[in-house]
Amino acid sequence: MSDTLIMAGRCLRLTRRNLDTLIVALVLPALLMVLFVVLFGGAIHTGTRYVTYVAPGVLLLCAGYGASLTAVGVCQDMTGGFIDRLRAMDVAGACVLAGHVAASVVRNVASAALALGVAIALGFRPHAGPLEWLAAIGVLVAFITAMSAVATALGLMARTPEAASGYTFVIMFLPYASSAFVPVRTMPGWLRGFAGHQPITPINRTLHALLLGGHADALVALAWCAGLVAVSLAAAGVLFSRRTAH
User: Fold this and answer.
1) Mean pLDDT score, 188-203
2) Each residue of 73-106: pLDDT tens digit?
3) How far apart are the C-alpha atoms of 22 and 211, rounded to whole Å?
């Protein structure tokens, strides 16, 4: 645990010292909220104010963008000699990977909080009580953890930081093909099946229900998050062992 916290602190310090990474991690989510609400909101009709409909989805989208930084960071550690130096210090590889996941969760929670503040400034008015807020935060953190774990595995798959960033495109695309930005019923028939049964839709529906009322798919949402974490960590363990076998 001590080594994991040290690795997480290292990742956060690297983020703080890299201005480009800091901008992507904190400023981009706020810009995305403004983009969807101010620029696109007037042209999209969902039966309610668009900021009310889209705010939970943008929070999930931010986690996808933040996860790309995690994938790049893991790949840089694997290709830059950092792992080789740790072997002489008897630091387990699992601690390095767990540190990346923990740092990613902290970064993405901060960016989500900033994006939520911008949404409230633009007119988002959740009417959740304390318990609903705690549940919504729990679901969001679970999703962020899942995306961070997936990004860690993708970073181990990639041979270059550029490839790692490209691999995470799939993560960033999922919110668009879900109920996060428009109702699934408005999509072409061939896309509705995928949009209705991929992980983002039940997670977005659960966040929306907890913050604004409505039907929640909490069990399905948490099952998706737990499954993604379990599969990603198992894959990361295998990939890390293969990359460091020599």
Assistant:
1) 90
2) 888 888 877 776 766 666 666 777 888 888 889 8
3) 28
Secondary-structure breakdown of the chain: helix, strand, coil percentages, each rounded to the nearest 5 = 80, 0, 20
How buried is residue 224: exposed, middle or buried, by Cβ count under 10 Å (0-12/13-18/19+)?
A: buried
Q: Which residue has the tokens 């960071």?
A: 73
Region of 47 (left: φ > 0; alpha: ψ -120 to 50; beta: rest) is left
Contact indicator for 133, 143 with CB cutoff of 8 Å: no
Determine whether 219 is exposed, middle or buried from the number of CB atoms within 10 Å of its CB (0-12, 13-18, 19+). exposed
Nearest CA to 151 among 60, 32, 64? 64
Does residue 35 have a pLDDT over 90? no
172 to 147, 188, 236: CA distances (angstroms) = 10, 20, 20
